[in-house]
From TrEMBL:
It comes from the Bacteria. Residues 397-419 are annotated as: Disordered. Pfam families: Glyco_trans_1_4. Coiled coil: none annotated. GO terms for molecular function: transferase activity. The keyword Transcription regulation does not apply. Keywords: Transferase. This is Glycosyltransferase. It comes from Jiangella ureilytica. Residues 397-410 have a biased composition (Basic and acidic residues).
Length: 419
């Protein structure tokens, strides 16, 4: 462990229990082994009524604080500057690093790092700052950036997220699930953006299966929660049993993963499912789904357990995957064993923290007024786009759907048709 301690201000956009926010806390805890002490901050107006990032931070021993977020960019910059007193660098685990650029990192007086765990690159990112991304395809597409691009896969704490780390039987008993139940679990933010389509398809897939052993457990909350619960109520009524259960947000979702027979999800939630040694069905945002198994493993991982592919009958495609898994306990065991081995090898928290510490080292080494001034061109283009009344060249660069489809890991060939 390094004896020279450095302090990092980690800026979050919100304090909800999202995968990226949990990843930020986990990495903040783990980089302490490399000499970095972190303060995690997030806007007070994003603090949910229930469990939040503050609970996760307390669990990991990371200091976290809320702040009142001003409306204007430069007022926000001043607030971040006050919070960054004593810090050596700022990590914008955020949709924008602009407030940090104009505040605590002004004229290169502190190192500045940005993480993008979204599925597309924001061209408003200052080109001279070190960038952390979570997907293999973005690493390849951004090769040659002046500030450098480092792949730090959304980490999983494989020492805590492990088979048998919770009382699996107790979790299932509390939900009234029979010993022979086949439990499908989704742990996710229940938001209309990206997430809701996969959850809704899963609800309808359970109805199509018509297997009385199969139950779907959904953990999480968000703006789509009420609508999805209503969809589930309809399915339960038609099936004449409680096949779909919503358990709300969980500060510690490990029992939900550990209690599952199959995990469904995308991004970091999918990765955690693998760490628990569970068969994984990856959910895209527009109806696509695939079982995480050879020969598709590398392609699915490169896409960070996600796809934009649109499928006309996503519920039918998903039902096909689930029917096979529900019927074959031996296959579930085989896939689960392979899942755990893959997680340990590819996104364990210690390895990802070491990689992030290297990015921090580089940010401290290269921060300078010259590099800061070099990025003023980006600020001028942002201002010009705003004055022009549109985003123009600064629109988010969405991945080309056809190009993505050409490298999709598993075609939708069972019951769904690609549009």
């Amino acid at each position: 462990m390094s004896t020279r301690r450095r302090r990092v201000l980690v800026q979050l956009d919100n304090l909800e229990l999202g995968g990226a926010q949990i990843n930020a806390v986990q990495l903040s805890a783990a980089v302490a082994e490399h000499g970095y002490d972190s303060l995690v901050i997030g806007p007070a107006d994003t603090l949910p009524a229930g469990p939040s990032v503050l609970d996760v931070s307390a669990d990991y021993g990371v200091t976290a604080r809320t702040y009142e977020r001003p409306a204007s960019l430069f007022a926000h910059a001043r607030v971040l500057s006050r919070l960054a007193r004593g810090a050596h660098l700022v990590h914008a685990f955020s949709t924008s690093e602009r407030a940090a650029y104009w505040g605590p990192a002004l004229l290169g007086r502190r190192g500045l790092v940005r993480t993008i765990y979204e599925m597309s690159f924001d061209p408003r990112t200052h080109p001279s700052i070190p960038l952390v991304i979570g997907t293999g395809y973005l690493r390849d597409e951004l090769a040659g950036r002046p500030g450098g691009t480092t792949l730090v896969s959304p980490p999983v704490d494989t020492s805590r997220d492990a088979p048998g780390s919770t009382d699996r039987a107790a979790f299932r008993r509390e939900l009234g699930l029979a010993d022979d139940a086949v439990v499908l679990t989704i742990v996710s933010r229940l938001t209309e953006e990206m997430k809701a389509r996969g959850v809704e398809d899963a609800i309808h897939a359970v109805e199509r299966l018509g297997d009385p052993r199969v139950h779907l457990v959904v953990a999480g909350t968000g703006d789509a929660a009420a609508r999805l619960r209503a969809v589930a109520d309809g399915v339960n009524l038609r099936l004449g049993r409680t096949a779909v259960l919503f358990v709300g947000p969980l500060a510690d979702p490990r029992p939900a993963y550990d209690g599952a027979d199959v995990v469904l999800g995308m991004g970091s939630s999918a990765a955690r499912g693998l760490a628990f040694g569970k068969p994984l069905v990856v959910l895209g945002e527009r109806g696509w789904s695939a079982v995480f198994r050879e020969p598709y493993v590398d392609a699915i991982f490169r896409n960070s357990f996600w796809s934009p592919r649109e499928v006309a009958d996503g519920a039918g495609l998903l039902a096909g995957h689930l029917r096979t898994l529900a019927a074959d306990a031996a296959e579930r065991h085989r896939l689960g064993t392979a899942a755990r081995a893959f997680a340990e090898a590819n996104f364990g928290l210690p390895a990802m923290a070491e990689r992030l510490a290297g990015v921090y080292d580089e940010a401290l080494r290269t921060a300078s007024s010259r590099r800061w001034l070099r990025d003023l061109g980006t600020e001028r283009r942002i201002l010009a786009a705003k004055l022009g009344g549109g985003s123009g060249a600064l629109e988010w660069k969405q991945r080309d759907t056809e190009a993505v489809g050409a490298r999709e890991p598993e075609p939708a060939t069972t019951e769904g048709a690609v549009r």
